[in-house]
Design a protein that fits this description.
The protein is mainly beta and 378 residues long. It has a single domain, classed as Beta-galactosidase, Chain A, domain 5. Helix content is 8%, strand content 35%. A hairpin with a 2-residue loop joins strand 1 and strand 2. The chain is globular and about 60 Å long. The N and C termini lie far apart (71 Å). About 4% of the residues have low confidence.
């Protein structure tokens, strides 16, 4: 009788575990799929929610924004960023830097070399002989220490050690994600160093506002508040010129569909295989002024970008895998399946004396802020 009782209890436990509800997010992510140990550190998925029911999910592997759920014009909650639905896919595909914190230096440094004071520093080459986004093992591949401050705020910290990826100085980094009550993702960056170094942090989220999984963004209507941009050479390094956008396909001051001129034979678009350039913002570091705006005519979702940074890199997904990359919930992401708007100082600034300085010295604190604010077109 005792054996029958024990067997019955064991069966109840098995049945209970089988019927236990999987803890998923509003965007359909299973939190358990982000629990792992990478670089001897624990990884997890952190969920931010505001009073409107909007949701942002972030993993501390690379500080990546995994999903952002906001309402479309019909009130349907819609995921507007690309990514993966498990930590293994992120770790196995680090070059697809979906949603990652980029550092130490966002964008390109020419010939993977720069001089600071009297020293010359060599960096890893990972893009046409240049260093892109801090190299192949930049911050987007590092595990951050995470502290959830409240339901709407996540604080991520990371110590980038002296000579990591060739950059000088022990750099203490803090990145704070906040989902505000007006449906904005507010990202604040801070950093200090014990040696002179260069810093240029940004976020590399891939946005598709349409609410149509696996669609392109060529119909998205974009505006960038900039009279000038940085022309580049054939390897996408700035030439040091600051050219007017007037009379060129780079003039995005008035709203225009992304696909209108993206395949024009304008040399700059040929070099980038589409838009992949840095615009010099008219906002001049004023975070209260709109730096850029994107609207999806399908969903009516609007994204406005605000930043303290002088530049904005607009990338139209030109190098996205034409064969398709399988992302969240099995969705295949196509060529130009998203766009990126990365707030930053200018590319190759360490080698361009006429550009605003990116040098950080001991005793100073690096500060930067970028907000992606979502609403619906009225």
């Amino acid at each position: 009788m005792k054996r029958l009782f024990i067997a019955a209890m064991a069966m109840c436990i098995v049945l209970s575990s089988c019927t236990k509800k999987v803890e998923t997010t509003l965007s359909g992510l299973n939190k358990a799929n982000f629990v792992s140990v990478v670089q001897n550190k624990q990884t997890a998925l952190y969920i931010l929610k505001n009073k409107n029911g909007a949701e942002a999910c972030i993993t501390n592997w690379g500080g990546r924004l995994v999903s952002v759920m906001v309402p479309d014009k019909n009130g349907k909650m819609t995921d507007v960023v690309l990514g993966y639905d498990n930590i293994k896919q992120y770790v196995d595909n680090p070059d697809n830097n979906y949603g990652g914190i980029i550092g130490r230096y966002g964008n390109r440094i020419a010939n993977a070399t720069f001089k600071l004071d009297s020293a010359i520093y060599k960096l890893p080459k990972n893009n046409n002989g240049h260093c892109l986004h801090g190299g192949p093992e930049g911050f987007h591949t590092r595990v951050f220490d995470a502290k959830q401050i409240d339901d709407q705020t996540l604080e991520l910290t990371y110590l980038s050690k002296d000579n990591e990826a060739g950059f000088p100085g022990n750099l203490n980094v803090k990145v704070t994600y906040k989902l505000t009550d007006d449906n904005a993702i507010d990202i604040k960056y801070e950093a200090t160093t014990d040696k002179p170094t260069v810093v240029n942090l940004t976020n590399h989220s891939y946005f598709n506002l349409s609410g149509v999984p696996g669609s392109q963004i060529l119909d998205h209507v974009i505006m960038i508040n900039a009279d000038t941009y940085l022309p580049v050479d054939s390897t996408l390094i700035p030439t040091a010129a600051m050219d007017s956008v007037a009379g060129t396909p780079m003039d995005l001051r008035m709203p225009i569909a992304v696909g209108t001129h993206i395949d024009d034979t304008f040399p700059q678009l040929v070099y980038g295989k589409g838009f992949d350039h840095n615009w010099i913002l008219n906002t001049k570091g004023d975070v209260t002024k709109v730096a850029a705006k994107v609207v999806s005519p399908k969903s009516g979702i609007v994204m406005e970008v605000y930043t303290t940074e002088p530049g904005l890199q607009f990338y139209a997904g030109n190098a996205m895998n034409k064969a398709g990359d399988k992302g969240k919930l099995g969705v295949v992401y196509p060529h130009r399946g998203a766009l990126c708007l990365e707030s930053q100082h200018y590319p190759d600034s360490p080698n361009q004396p006429t550009f605003p300085s990116v040098v950080l010295r001991p005793g100073e604190t690096y500060h930067s802020e970028c907000m992606y604010k979502f609403s619906v077109e009225k």
